[in-house]
Amino acid sequence: MDYKDFGLVNTKKMFSDALSGHYAVPAFNFYNMETLQAIINAAHDTHSPVILAVSESALKYMGTDLLRGMIWGLNLKDSNSVALHLDHGSSFESCIQAIELGFSSVMIDGSKLPFDANVALAKQVADYAHQYDVSVEAELGVLSGIEDENTKSSKSSYTNPDDVVNFVNATNIDSLAIAIGTSHGAYKRKSNDEELRFDILDKVAQQLPDFPLVLHGASSIPQHFIKTINEFGGKISNALGIPVEQLKRAVEKNICKINVDSDSRLAFTAGIREALAQKPENFNPRDYLGVGLKNIYDNCVEEIKNIMNSANKL
User: Fold this and answer.
1) Contact yes or no for 257/51 (Cβ under 8 A)
2) pLDDT tens digits, one per residue of 252-278
3) ∠ CA 308-169-173 to the nearest 5 degrees?
4) Which positions are catalytic?
5) pLDDT tens figures, 167-202
6) Does some domain include residue 182?
7) Domain range enclosing 172
């Protein structure tokens, strides 16, 4: 399936425009109809480009046929500037599957491999994907934390700026995810006083002045969602994200894609918990799922406008 048949685009022009316009394209993860609707409606209403991100576990959860049906149902045109992206592809085979399904962008995550093995795997994916005009992202450095079974690590290692030019040249990838202190999941910080390693980001940006850089594990973890979840029966404590001001600062330094997953999960959960608690007699999924959908929509709009700076960039 050619992604262009879905009205999708790859990320090349997206990132070129983002670099020149000093903004980031949001990459929001989704896993069902409600999360997809919320994201695409937020992007449409803010006139923002958007990357619809799907992890391997989310793809397994939705199923390939249902996923393609939902993307068809969006009735996209290339002028909408929407990409469908495989997030944290674990193997060459998983990237091939995504390309055959109609993804316009794939990430191959060989970050836990030795440098030469990471290069070889990323190059193999890029050589294959570029035959179909599909964009490829790879990662140098390792993020700690847990998002799902395919995205977890108990250890982290920062990106070595001295490696980035060799890595990009040897692999021919289209964007590079770097590790500067972000992490997966809802527990990214012990304190908001902690700062991202902007010194590393500065050095990487100097080495790759016109190359698209990506931040994973960069959810801001809005505290009002944590408060609502806990107020209505949840047990999430000490969850802290990346401060908004630090994310905005990163966008000014070649970060042209920011991945957001945990924020949407928290928004959805907070809405559903509150709706069920306030109307315990309600058993209509459209009602309580709709509240969760609106929470994700509102949060995506907020982040598009106030973190990514991508509103009205179409």
Assistant:
1) yes
2) 988 999 999 999 999 999 999 999 999
3) 45
4) 87
5) 999 999 999 999 998 876 766 566 667 889 999 999
6) yes
7) 3-220+253-262
